[in-house]
Amino acid sequence: MAGGAVTRFAPSPTGLLHLGHAYAALVAERLADPGWFLLRIEDIDRDRCRPEYEAAIHEDLAWLGLSWQQPVMRQTDRMQAYRDALARLAPLAYPCQCRRGDIRAVLSAPQEGALPAGPDGLVYPGTCRARGLSDAGPGDVIRLDVARAFDALGIDRIGFRDESIMPDQDHVLTKDQFLDGIGDVILSRRGMGTSYHLAVVVDDAAQGITLVTRGKDLFDSTFIHVLLQKLLRLPTPAYHHHRLIRDDAGKRLAKRDDARALRHYRQDGATPQDIRRMIGL
Ligand code: GLU
Questions:
Q1: Do the domains spanning 1-77+246-281 and 79-207 agree at the CATH topology level?
Q2: In this structure, which residue's CA is closest to atom 8 in ligand 1?
């Protein structure tokens, strides 16, 4: 076991890596103890992930000069671990058949203007909360009853430490803030057997990650992950939420911003040093 940090880079093979990924990977590697930078392929969304993008991840990271521990974890090899975690959360979970339109209709009824939205979109109004898992249908998602989860843990707030933002204080959300701003999170998506949140938490623990480095866009999701860690009795790592690489218009880079894919810069003759310079490292 390392004395310092074990970190990981966890891309989804749904497109080519761009400058934002290069930054995320290089930050994770810099903050790891030598030899303790890990890679994880987040490929649970089988409809969007492609083997050629997975191959390109390995190639682009190696070109950047990164090396990582073997074997590489792939989420599609880990479905049993997610099923086990879901089974442990079953007493606090319920099936939900609401589609986005249903949720929008319920939320719109009592109010006008902006609807409450959290890291996963609209905050679920709890329509299916009274349903039991025994009548879950094949098209249902599984949600966590967050109020009951806090009560089961005997806590009324949740927090984590990010020393890069606030060195000696936790970032905290109360139970009510969590319910109002995030709501009953999805543990298993339709036809997927898990959700991003559940898989990340189970895998970070399985890989022994002690410092999770990720973009600031995932800051709110970290509260979800800490709650799941507590429910599953998994350790809570330290967190480092880094800045996002933006385009000239100030927009965060997305996979569809193919023009900024690392391999296009590479084809145009850029070196790994050029890439580091471009992202301010
Ligand atoms: N797979 C996630 C992404 O592509 C990042 C993983 C994480 O830090 O939780 O944005």
A1: yes
A2: 214
- Give the integer Cα–Cα distance in Å for 158 and 170: 9
Strand partners, 188: 142
Query: Residue 212 CA: which ligand 1 atom is closest?
Result: 8
The domain ranges of the chain are 1-77+246-281, 79-207
Pairing of strands 141-144, 186-188: antiparallel
Report the distance separating Cα 103 and Cα 105, nearest Å.
5
CB-hemisphere CA count at 13 Å for 207?
Answer: 32
Q: What are the Cα distances from residue 159, in Å, to 208, 245, 248?
A: 20, 26, 34
Phi then psi for residue 15, to 5 deg, are: 180, -175
Domain 1-77+246-281 is in which class? alpha beta
CATH number listed for the domain at residues 79-207: 3.40.50.620
Q: Is 42:199 a contact under the CB 8 Å cutoff?
A: yes
Mutate to test the pocket of ligand 1, among 218, 225, 244 (most ligand atoms within 8 A of CB): 218
Pairing of strands 37-41, 238-242: unpaired
Q: What is the pLDDT of residues 96-152, one digit of tens each?
A: 999 999 999 999 987 778 899 999 999 999 999 999 999 999 899 999 999 999 999
- Ligand 1 centroid–CA 108 distance in Å is 31
Q: What pTM did the predictor assign?
A: 0.95
| Residue 190, CA distances (Å) to 19, 48, 101 in order | 31, 14, 16
DSSP state of 159: E
